[in-house]
Amino acid sequence: MLSARSRDRPGSRGGADSTRPTWLGGLVGGAAERWAELQSGRGIPPEILARAEHDPWHHDATYFVPPEVPADTPSRAAGLALLHTPGSVLDVGCGGGDAAFALVERAIRVTGVDRQQDMLDVFTATARSRGVAFRTVLGPWPDAAEQAGPADVVVSHHVLHNVVDLPPFLLALTAAARRGVVVEMLGQHPMAWLDPLWERFHGLHRPPPATTDDAVAVLGELGIEPTVTWWERRSPPRQDPVWVTRRLCLPSDRVPEVDAALDELVRPRVAATVAWHP
Ligand SMILES: C[S@@+](CC[C@H](N)C(=O)[O-])C[C@H]1O[C@@H](n2cnc3c(N)ncnc32)[C@H](O)[C@@H]1O
Asked: Which residues are near ligand 1 (CB < 6 Å)?
């Protein structure tokens, strides 16, 4: 039922998604290739995807409303340190703007870039309700970089694991930042903890996921040596079984089974703040 897919959705197998990135074979080395292969390994076989009732890659914007009081994390601290004097913030893959709105006390303007309009709608509503000067840009990064323009601080939280072709994404973050870039990501692909459910419901064995260390190795190949701070996120709420059922490309009548299976899994909490200067 579903066929449309994006190049940057690791779920891709076949079609345009399987096109090997143009930088392979010389421009960038093995770490970028390893990242692309690990990310491509997160794919959903076409025969499973064809039975999906909903887009398994779609993020529900209602889950991404930023909290009134931002979490006090190393990522926020790194962003505020770069805003030692107030400056502009560009949030790439902003969702509802959790990363940007955590910095508003020292941000003179926030720009949100996302490929989903409903995420930008949440970003817009939050900026208006909090009286923050803002702009939004709809489109995939790095294609949207030109329209977004530069900013003093560039933040991108929980987006890298959506990306297959990582060097252009990282280079565009770096080029957009006047003072620094702050990336936040989980220690490994955020959906890897659901791998036992792919085995259980589809008999699909998942290869190992990409990790923060893999992303840092790609940065190294680009000549960027970031500061990496490891930390633990607060316990996330239990994952919505309806969303997981969709992610697994299962029909809605399987929700109770998925719900029960989730009780046997532990959602990882290890996160990393990866920051660097342009
Ligand atoms: C897991 S959410 C994280 C949202 C937000 N940064 C946060 O931490 O709450 C990932 C977001 O990145 C967006 N996204 C993924 N790849 C993107 C790309 N290449 N360009 C723009 N947005 C992207 C998705 O639409 C989604 O809103």
From this structure: 8, 59, 64, 93-95, 98-99, 113-116, 119, 140-141, 157-159, 162-163
Say if strands 134-138 and 227-232 run parallel, antiparallel, or are unpaired. unpaired
Instruction: Catalogue all structural domains in the chain, each as residue range(s) with its CATH number.
Output: 2-43+67-196+205-237+264-276 (3.40.50.150)
Give the number of the atom of ligand 1 that is nearest the alpha carbon of residue 119. 27
| 113 C-alpha to ligand 1 centroid (Å) | 8
Instruction: Name the residue of 62, 124, 159 to mutate for ligand 1: max ligand atoms within 8 A of Cβ.
Output: 159
pLDDT digits (tens), the chain, 278 positions: 222 233 344 443 322 233 344 444 445 689 999 999 999 999 899 999 999 999 998 888 988 999 999 999 999 999 999 999 999 999 999 999 999 999 999 999 999 999 999 999 999 999 999 999 999 999 999 999 999 999 999 999 999 999 999 999 999 999 999 999 999 999 999 999 999 999 999 999 999 999 999 999 999 999 999 999 999 998 777 788 999 999 999 999 999 999 999 999 988 899 999 999 99
pTM of the model: 0.89
Residue 52 identity (one-letter amino acid): A
Indicate which residue's Cα is closest to atom 9 of ligand 1: 98
Distance CA 108, CA 127 (A): 12
CA distance 101 to 128: 12
- At 69, list the tokens: 């009081």
Ligand 1 mean position to 59 CA, how many Å?
8
First to last CA, the chain: 44
> Going by CA atoms, what residue is nearest to atom 24 of ligand 1?
93
